[in-house]
Amino acid sequence: MEGKSFPTRGGSVGTSTIDVRKPRATYLPFAVPHITQAEIDEVVDTLRNGWLTTGPKTKRFECEFARKVNAPYAVAVNSATAAMHLALDAIGLQPGDEVIVPVYTFTASAEVIIYFRARPIFVDVDPVTCNLNPAQLEKCITPRTRAIIVVHIAGLPAEMDSILSIARAHNLPVIEDAAHAFPARYRGRMIGSMGDLTAFSFYATKTLSTGEGGMLTTANAEYAERASMQSLHGISRDAWKRYGAEGSWYYEVIQAGYKYNMTDIAAALGLHQLARCDWLLERRQTIAKRYTEVFSQWPELGTPPDPPHIEHAWHLYMLRLQLERLTITRDAFIQELARANIGTSVHFIPLHLHPFYRETYQLVPGDFPVALDIYQRVISLPIYPGMSDDDVEDVIAAIGRIIETFKK
Length: 408
Ligand SMILES: Cc1ncc(COP(=O)(O)O)c(C=O)c1O
Fold this sequence. Notes:
By secondary structure, this protein is α/β, with parallel strands linked by helices. Helix content is 36%, strand content 13%. The protein has helices at 37-49, 56-69, 80-90, 108-114, 134-137, 160-169, 221-230, 239-243, 264-275, 277-295, 330-339, 355-360, 369-377, 389-406, and strands spanning 73-77, 98-102, 119-123, 145-151, 174-178, 185-186, 189-190, 197-201, 214-218, 301-302, 310-311, 317-321, 378-381. The strands form three sheets. Strands 1-9-8-5-4-2-3 form a seven-stranded mixed beta sheet, sandwiched between helices. Strands 7-6-11 form a three-stranded antiparallel beta sheet, with no helix packed on it. Strands 10-12-13 form a three-stranded antiparallel beta sheet. The longest helix is centred in the C-terminal third of the chain and has 19 residues, at 277-295. The radius of gyration is 22 Å and the shape is globular. Mean pLDDT is 93; it is low at 1-18. The site of pyridoxal-5'-phosphate has 14 residues, from helix 3 and helix 4. The site of pyridoxal-5'-phosphate (PLP) has 14 residues, from helix 3 and helix 4.
């Protein structure tokens, strides 16, 4: 290791200093939600006041979230998958329709299309951003195309101007899978205020966490009304209105809906996470900046893009390995990090590599070469507000040691 440039504390990369810190004694998890006493008190208050399911806290969370992302309407649900399902229901997706979706994503982005017996049309992604590549989009559009799904991978907004202009030219709604992208901006506009419908996730590892949860935002009153009704069995009145002082026992089922409503226990968590979201983002930004500052100086690594017209939510820090300069594979690199007590993950296994999609749509790995290439070299590093500066330096030092051992 001697003589190698290694990161030192204090924001610079030393030229002669060797970081001799030992591997961590304790395991650094890949993701940990940021829960404070305020969330705990709010949940306890919810338990004590007796209103556990959808009620006043959920309504307040919807209003405050809508205000934050600058969307006229927000419907709270129990997952982003539910929000995506309701979005496709709102646009009236039919069996046999086609929906364009990037192949580099989690299965939820595409499985919701299949709920309708419609067909996902996979599109390869941009090699730098890992997001839907507008240059590939237009050639996927056919007379059967009914919608375009955009995924903001890692919390980095996709190129919305080009995507929206192609969509408008073909009169197609854009549904944003913003499971990673709260809070994020594209050219000053909040994600959640741009596409026709946007789905957010509040899963345990996400930037705003309610354990399980999601939100659908839109500027279209009809979509919002339909999604709200469908989120609770397609009935005309919310349960919380039915059982409240001003409610009545009477309700009507207008459609066969779903059971996707958010509970007030989840909303209790969400309200406080939302109130702290700018601080939470700042902390993730600081970690990302430190990682990039060091990793961008090591030719064995590639760092995630952070272009000036975008405010990245930094849900994930997706490091790329320059495998040509290393003697180990990505999987072995992950094992080395695990041996150094650093938790990591991989986002994503492109959908066309999974048995279900591969067999159902007769896909082979080479069909989406960019997605395949990114997948083989990517590692998601821990990036969450509860990490200490020492934790961040431990990750950097562990990566430095692995590179030193396995560089060509
Ligand atoms: C890109 C993407 N979309 C959708 C989802 C689904 O989110 P949820 O678990 O809230 O349904 C995830 C979950 O990780 C995701 O990564």
